[in-house]
């Protein structure tokens, strides 16, 4: 198992590096949904430093067995009633997708005297079943970050629509990079465009070529040998 994981990580790092072109190769966030802690820990020696969990309940169930050197990100939709559980547990919430969640995360973090890094999730495909700010709404939201002094927005995250041909998503990835650069050039308190998290196993190479700084890979790493 460990040899397969090491092989897969090396394989995808090479492919992402080749795809990135004029951009730096994106960092891999290893998606650990349904993967047991012992298996997740095998990826650390292969160079993975960031892991992403979709559900708070699953994360808490295996937290004690995870390698404590990992930087843990929450990448799934977060219910406001779970906000208190993740403060001090995760380094970053990639799925900050609405104002009431920002308010609750800020309230809980302030109670603990903590700060929390976040990515603003953008619903770039305007899919009604997905969370995230519409592209036209994300900048007005970010301009209000003074209302949430315990939160630090470090970039943007997007989940692209499902497509048979990943290249068909290129315009949306390019739009995300453009939005990322536009916000990066603006002067907003507590907002820094450092991370552009977009692309998963099926579309990560297109994402890398369009300027993703982080991709989220699960079965590509923990599944069968590539």
**Terminal residue distance:** 13 Å
* Chain-averaged pLDDT: 96
Uncertain segments: none
Tally of DSSP helical segments? 9
Shape field = globular
State which percent range the strand residues make up.
15-25%
Question: Given the helix and strand composition, which structural class is it?
Answer: alpha/beta
- Round the Cα radius of gyration to an integer and report it: 17 Å
Return the string of H and E elements: HEHEHEHEHEHEHEHEH
Record field, number of beta strands: 8
Main sheet properties: 8 strands, parallel
Strand order in the sheet with the most strands: 7-6-5-4-3-2-1-8
Helix content: 25-40%
Kindly describe this structure:
The chain is an alpha/beta fold. The chain is built from nine helices and eight strands. The protein has helices spanning 2-20, 37-42, 56-62, 83-86, 99-111, 135-142, 170-184, 204-209, 219-222; strands spanning 27-31, 50-53, 71-74, 92-96, 116-121, 151-158, 191-198, 214-217. Strands 7-6-5-4-3-2-1-8 form an eight-stranded parallel sheet. Strand 3 (71-74), helix 4 and strand 4 form a beta-alpha-beta unit. The longest helix has 19 residues, at 2-20. The chain is globular, with a radius of gyration of 17 Å. The two termini are 13 Å apart. The model has no long low-confidence stretch (mean pLDDT 96).
